């Protein structure tokens, strides 16, 4: 088995559960898929020192399953990411999901990476 460095342009879609505060106090969990970019330890540390919102901006490259308050899809953009990065429970859930994912990076992603022209994103073993 050979260790192969990850493609620096690869994007990794990862399911993320986001606990959402509710009026009654019961546990409500929203499900979405966050597309992560893998960043190095130094970049991750520097982003976290600046705050969780900076970290989220550094690692999030897209998403699906996130809606506006009226139920319409929230498309990925820097402005939309800024809106989400201002929400504490979103930041916490995404930061924790990234940490779990990066600590156990799979051999191959299950979905093609747009950055590699449809080939699976490679942080692979042969």
List keywords for this structure.
three-stranded antiparallel beta sheet, globular, alpha+beta, 4 helices, 126 residues, 33% helix, 5 strands, two-stranded antiparallel ribbon
Spatial order of strands in the largest sheet? 1-2-3
Biggest β-sheet strands, sense, barrel:
3 strands, antiparallel
Termini, distance in Å? Answer: 6 Å
Number of strands: 5
Strand percentage: 25-35%
Mean pLDDT: 84
What characteristic shape results from the CA principal axes? Answer: globular
How would you spell out the order of helices and strands?
Answer: EEHHEHHEE
Radius of gyration, Cα only, in angstroms?
A: 15 Å
- Name the poorly predicted regions: 107-126
Strand-pairing-aware structural class: alpha+beta
- Residue share in helix: 25-40%
Instruction: Please work out how many helical segments DSSP would assign.
Output: 4
């Amino acid at each position: 088995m050979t260790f192969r460095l990850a493609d620096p342009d690869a994007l990794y879609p990862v399911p993320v559960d986001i606990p959402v505060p509710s009026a009654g106090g019961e546990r409500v969990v929203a499900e979405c898929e966050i597309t992560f970019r893998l960043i190095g330890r130094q970049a991750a540390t520097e982003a976290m020192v600046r705050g969780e919102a900076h970290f989220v901006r550094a690692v999030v490259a897209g998403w699906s399953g996130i809606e506006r308050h009226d139920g319409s899809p929230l498309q990925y953009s820097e402005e939309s990411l800024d809106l989400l990065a201002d929400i504490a429970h979103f930041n916490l859930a995404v930061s924790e999901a990234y940490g779990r994912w990066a600590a156990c990076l799979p051999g191959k992603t299950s979905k093609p990476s747009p950055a590699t022209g449809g080939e699976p994103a490679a942080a692979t073993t042969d």
